[in-house]
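U., I forgot to send this yesterday:
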Amino acid sequence: MARFFLSRASMRLEEGLIPIVGDDAHHIAYSLRMAVGDPITVCDMQKTEYLCTILSVKPDEVLLSVNDTRENDTELPIKIHLYQSLPKGDKMEYIIQKAVELGAASVTPVTSARCIVKLDEKSAEKKIARWQKIAEEAAKQCGRGYIPEVRAPISFPCAIEAGQKTDLPLFCYEGDDTVSLKTVLGHTMDRLLSLDHLPEAAVYIGPEGGYDRAEVDKAASAGMTAINLGKRILRCETASGFVLAAMTYAFEL
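Result:
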């Protein structure tokens, strides 16, 4: 079923109606070729879904009738924030798409020492807009309760500082003095799920060349848990999906 995200303020819930305007209306009318009577789901980005039927279709507005509401149940019982060092090419697009599908709450691009890609303010603005659109489309496709945010790029020290505020900061590293993700999750899962708030985790993935030694030491001094992802070296575009899939299995399945 087609799925769209709207703010609750734009809905006319007291009348049992939801208008969809702009690009989404055009997409419904011309790309999806939906018609009066077709079912459609709207999510208010606060984990409430509205099961609707199309009442009218115009190029600039599609009017929906609300038939029922339900709470979205597709979100993980832990908020996972991905801090991904900028990779080359279009790998970030793939990483964001799969991270959203696998339940990430946010994705933050990070500039670390071995990043080849350097974004200035103008190019970063364009990239973020595109990445956020990819996140939105992925959220629609997989039935998320809200659209995860793709944040502006930050420096490695700022990323570490942000992760210190979470309940489980996980620093993915292929070197020595690490513990397995399986071990960490086994030791912390019960504690996290017993907290009186929604637990949050930070996952750090390096660029193609990995983290340099100074960054590893900084993460360790900040209290990050250095984890390995098994006996094989994963590409940066594989590593985030591996971690998120493992955490979904541990916390949800």
